[in-house]
Amino acid sequence: MERCLGAPLTAQFTTATTLVAGLAKAHGERRLDEKLLALSKPKLLIVDELGYLPLEPDAAHLFFQLVSRRYETGAMLITSNRSVAEWGTVFADPVVATAILDRLLHHSHVLTIRGDSYRLRAKRNSGLIRPPVGDRPPVGSASLRPVTDGTNLQPTS
């Protein structure tokens, strides 16, 4: 690990929405190969918020092309609030989701983080929202509803 941290590393960060919008634009301008090549150059491509919004079928196919191009040539770090079991709905096509996951999971390490988001935890710690009476909300719960007096918010279960 220390050797990796000391090595020169090129990286690029993007959100999934920005990424697929750029791929779609390049595809429309007949520059998709050029765009895929550019996205294949960084040693590490970080894609944030995959699954925050479901991808249209065309966008899912473009994302597959990127994953396929980078497969075994460059690392990808992907953040998502969806489990891989839900990616069939994220990509609007279970076949495409399976093909993407096949390539991503082959040489991967999956980290699952459970609990409140750090943003929600900070709000709770500051007193802006109160925990519900009784047990804590289910893991991953982030819905908010007004408290009786309407001045604070509390998570719903």
Distance between the amino and carboxyl termini: 40 Å
CATH architecture of the largest domain: 3-Layer(aba) Sandwich
CATH homology group of the largest domain: P-loop containing nucleotide triphosphate hydrolases
Shape: globular
Q: Tally the helices.
A: 7
Strand content: 5-15%
* Estimated helix fraction: 40-55%
Task: Determine the structural class based on helices, strands and strand pairing.
Answer: alpha/beta
Total number of strands: 5
Radius of gyration: 19 Å
What summary fits the major beta sheet?
Answer: 3 strands, parallel
Give a quick set of tags describing it.
7 helices, two-stranded antiparallel ribbon, single chain, Rossmann fold, alpha/beta, 157 residues, 2 domains, three-stranded parallel sheet, 13% strand
Per-chain topology:
Elements: H1 2-6, E1 11-15, H2 16-28, H3 32-40, E2 44-48, H4 57-70, E3 75-78, H5 87-90, H6 94-106, H7 118-126, E4 144-146, E5 153-155
Parallel strand pairs: 1-2, 2-3
Antiparallel strand pairs: 4-5
Describe the structure.
The chain is α/β, with parallel strands linked by helices. The chain has 2 domains: 2-106, P-loop containing nucleotide triphosphate hydrolases (Rossmann fold), CATH 3.40.50; 118-155, no CATH class. The protein is 43% helix and 13% strand. It has helices at residues 2-6, 16-28, 32-40, 57-70, 87-90, 94-106, 118-126, and strands at residues 11-15, 44-48, 75-78, 144-146, 153-155. The strands form 2 sheets. The chain has a 3-stranded parallel beta sheet with strand order 1-2-3. It has a two-stranded antiparallel ribbon with strand order 4-5. Strand 4 (144-146) and strand 5 (153-155) form a beta hairpin. Helix 2 crosses helix 4 (57-70) and helix 3 crosses helix 4 (57-70). The chain is globular, with a radius of gyration of 19 Å. Mean pLDDT is 83; it is low at 139-157.
